[in-house]
Amino acid sequence: MKKISILFVMIITSSGFAQDKAKALLNEVSTKVKSYNNISVGFKYELNNVSENINQETKGDVTIQNKKYHLNVLGVTRIFDGKTLYTISPEDEEVTVSSDNTEHEGTITPSKMMTFYEEGYNYKMDILQNVKGRKIQYVKLIPIDSNAEIKHVLLGIDATTKHIYNLIEVGKNGVKTILTVNSFKTNQAIPKTLFAFDENKYKDFYINKID
After folding, report:
1. Residue 43: closest CA among 66, 68, 62, 69
2. In 35-90, where does DSSP find H-type helix?
3. How many helices (H) and strands (E) does the chain have?
4. pTM, 2 dp
5. What is the mean pLDDT of residues 182-201?
6. How many CB atoms lie within 10 A of CB 78?
7. pLDDT tens-digit readout, 37-52
8. What percent of the chain has pLDDT over 90?
9. Is residue 81 classed exposed, middle or buried when 0-12, 13-18 and 19+ CB atoms within 10 A define those classes?
10. 202 three-state secondary structure
11. What is the mean pLDDT of residues 5-10?
12. What is 2-209's CATH topology?
């Protein structure tokens, strides 16, 4: 019985230590991200849905400054000025104007892409991989909300730079999405107009305003 008790204590201690290491690493990433005035990221986005036989891959880019962002992906541009979200679809010749409330629904939005893990998740250290000469340490994030649609998220962190390398999200429905960072630039000289919507450029577009 004594041996079993000692083993139990060792397991609990080891688990707590692993969680402390994961927390320390995430804190390092968060501190570094918040030290930048702005971040510009080029990325690859992959969607894998086995049940629907869907495999989709595309590239995009996003510039983030505080809560503001300018995102280009799948031929659509999304501009969030801190209060209002403008979704511009040239193919449909339509601009959808709305308040950005998706952050309250647990969605990983562009403005939170580098810091979403700070709340709403339990976490633990996962595998360490060598990716093209870079050591990538993964942290496994599990939603605290048992009703969340996400099963878990694997966050890959460059062990040297403490920058996010990739994000692998696995849904309870089996759908997997992977976002891999191809380029990461900080403190760039960006025009103030980058986060502003110029309606004059879209006079021929249908403006769909959603309350």
Report:
1. 62
2. none
3. 1, 12
4. 0.80
5. 93
6. 19
7. 999 999 998 989 888 8
8. 58
9. middle
10. helix
11. 43
12. outer membrane lipoprotein receptor (LolB), chain A (2.50.20)
CA angle 176, 179, 182 (to 5 degrees): 150
Q: Which of 165, 194, 167, 196 is nearest to 38 (CA)?
A: 194
Q: Distance (Å, rounded) from C-alpha 85 to C-alpha 169?
A: 24
What pLDDT, on a 0 to 100 scale, did the predictor assign at position 108? 57
Q: Three-state secondary structure along 133-153?
A: CEEEEEEEEEECCCCCCEEEE
Chain centroid to Cα 209, Å, comes to 27
Distances (CA, A) of 192 to 70, 121, 167, 189, 197: 11, 34, 29, 9, 11
CA dihedral 30, 28, 132, 152 (to 10 degrees): -60
Q: pLDDT value at position 17?
A: 41
Please tell me whether residue 204 adopts helix, strand or coil conformation: coil
pLDDT in tens, 8-37: 443 333 334 456 788 899 999 989 988 999
Mean pLDDT of 138-159: 92
Sign of CA dihedral 31, 35, 39, 42: negative
SS3 content of the chain, % helix, strand, coil (to 5): 25, 45, 30
Q: 184 - beta bridge partners?
A: 41
pLDDT tens, position by position, 63-117 = 999 889 999 988 999 999 989 999 999 999 999 999 865 544 445 566 667 778 8
Residues 6+ apart with CB under 8 A from 203: none
